[in-house]
Structures are given as structure tokens and as C-alpha cells.
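Suppose you are handed only these lines of text.
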Amino acid sequence: MIDIHFEPLQALGLTPAITHRASRLALSAPHLRLARIIETQRDRFVLHDGVVEHSARIGPGLLQPLTAAHQTLTIGDWIAMQLDEYHQAWIVHRVPPSTEIARRAGDGRRQPLASNVDTALLVMGLDTDFNARRMERYMAMVRASDVAPVVVLTKRDIAPDADARIAEMYARLPATVPVLAVNALSAECRTHLGPWVHGGATLVVLGSSGAGKSTLINTLSGADQATGGVRSGDGRGRHTTTARSLHRCPSGGCIIDTPGLRTFRADADARSLAASFEDVQSLGQQCRFRDCRHEGEPGCAVRTHVDPDRLANYQKLLRDAGRGEMTALDRVAQRGKWKAIQRAGSRRAQEKRR
Ligand SMILES: Nc1nc2c(ncn2[C@@H]2O[C@H](COP(=O)(O)OP(=O)(O)O)[C@@H](O)[C@H]2O)c(=O)[nH]1
Ligand SMILES: [Mg+2]
Ligand SMILES: [Zn+2]
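From them, the structure of the protein bound to zinc ion can be written out as follows.
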């Protein structure tokens, strides 16, 4: 059995679906509590059980199955925790997440960024940070995990070409994607983002370093992230630099801060890419040829209506997704096959010369 206090945990984003999932876990250990990972550090996690925070480690009974399944705990996870006789908190079980945003690392491995998220705020500065292709890549990553994207363009107050760039983003993305342009330092953001930051909702900010993610969270949560009380467990304050953290907003929602992703590949497949580029999909049905590849065929509706750079990016992301679906072993095997073909080729060339 697991202790679940719905009301205090609701301010941390607890939903009826997660409550149901947690209550169905077959757990035999006594004195388990439901809590959420609100901060990740190198070897520790900060949990909130609705009343207090705990500095916790992964219990040995959970570490082994996680490692075997190539999984890691991530910010936003709901977990079952237990306190030992020394008041040390241990994470003993992970509630299967309802959503999990992940990227592909260079070696093809999946890296979770945040879990149990409803909305992703894709934050991009209207200054030199502005890049439509990168925004489409973020969008693909988020759509692949069934999380709703909202584009938040920051620095509206200081970017010289703000209006032209806002217009460019509107023209480029399908009309179904909300695009907001804000000054992240201004309290107006709370009004603009109000519809998404309601009680029980969890949001995450994604974007490059310096885009204004932490600034936006400070404005929405009305708190200074660098300050806070002392938590139980390690007696340290909240001043330690952490990679990822979850913040509560006065409106009842909560929002996860992440560091900038310098280079990343979306963990997306062809199907989820089609959802991100729904405009290409639906226009494609109006092309003259049913198998039109939008590469210069006559009567191509996609080429007529879709921004050429957007179309090129879609095709690039599709190629990347094809690579992403190969496992590391597949890639080694493919490289081996190429080498064999090359060797056979040079052997034939040598034989010809003789
Ligand atoms: N004028 C202005 N400055 C902003 C805005 N958003 C962020 N900044 C500034 O940009 C810098 C980087 O912001 P920060 O939130 O740390 O970016 P992060 O790396 O995405 O978390 C800070 O100096 C912010 O004050 C904005 O909308 N307007
Ligand atoms: Mg930041
Ligand atoms: Zn076409």
C-alpha cells in the first residue's frame, strides 16, 4: 500500500490518472509515500511529498531493474519513497509516467528530459537566438511524446527585428500551434500563459541557454529561484546549482526548468514528425501525383504553399529519424557491411588491373 494525499500533492501536479496508477502498484513494503522528483542533482534527488522536501537516493532494489532496462529517473517522475531508521529517504518505486520527453544522444541512446508533462513551452529569444529550424526540431521532440507545444518568443522588448521575426514564425508554423511573443521579465506573461498554467498542470521550458527560460519561470512562479528554505535530509539550502528543478506557481500549476540543450536530436519517428508537419501532410493530398515527393514534380501543392526551408528541414528530420530508429548495434552492423562492400569493391578493382 502507498500513502497518497491528493490535495497537497495537487499543487505539485498530481492528476487523477497518476493517483490511479500509483494506487494500483503492487507494493509490499510498509510506510510508502507518493512523492515527486522536484530537483535532480548528480547522485541525489530532491523529492516533495506534498508537505516537506527530502533529499533522496535510489534504493538498491530499484537501481538494479532501472539499470537493466536502460532507464533513469528524471525530473517530474512520481515515485514511492520510504524513510529508513536514520531518516534517510529512499526511492523504492517509479510510477510509470504518463508522458516522457526525451532526446537522442550522439550514440543513439534515449535521454529523458522531463516526465509527466502536459505542455512544453518552447522558449526562443527574438534576438540572435532566433532560428526557425531549431524550433521545428524542438516541436518534433515534444510531439513525439504526446506533449502539447506552445512557442514562447522572448525579448520582444529589446529585439530590433521583433515584429518581422514574430511574423516569420507565424507564417512558418501550422496555425494549430500557439505562438506568444513576450517580455519574460514582465508580469504580463502570467496573463498570456494563464490558460496553460492552471491547477494540476505541469509545464516544462525547453530552449537554448540564455533564451529566458529561468526568467520566465521566475515571473510565472513569482519567486526567486536562487532562494528558498532548508530541506530535510542534507541540511543544505537551495543555493546549490542544479540542472533541473520543478517550481510551483500561485495559479496552482507547476513548471520545470531545464538547462539549454546545445546539440540534440529529437527522439521522433516518421509518424510523430508527420504530426509536427501536419501542414505538409494535409497539403500533400492536393498534389497532382499521389506519390508526390515534393521534389519538383509538376502540380505539387506542398512546394507552392510551404516555406521551402521548412520543407527541407522536414526532409532532414525524416532522414535523422531513420537513423534514430537504428540501434547502436544496427549501426555497427551497417558500418561492417559497408566495409565489406568497400573491400569487395577494391578487390574487384585490383583483379581488373591484373
Ligand atoms: N529584456 C529582456 N531580457 C530578458 C528576457 N528574457 C530573458 N532576458 C534576460 O536574458 C538573460 C538570460 O535569461 P535566463 O532566464 O537566465 O535564460 P535561460 O538560460 O534560458 O534560463 C538574463 O539576463 C535575462 O534577464 C526578455 O524577455 N526581455
Ligand atoms: Mg536557466
Ligand atoms: Zn507534392
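What can we learn from it? The first helix runs from residue 6 to 10. The first strand starts at residue 2 and ends at 3.
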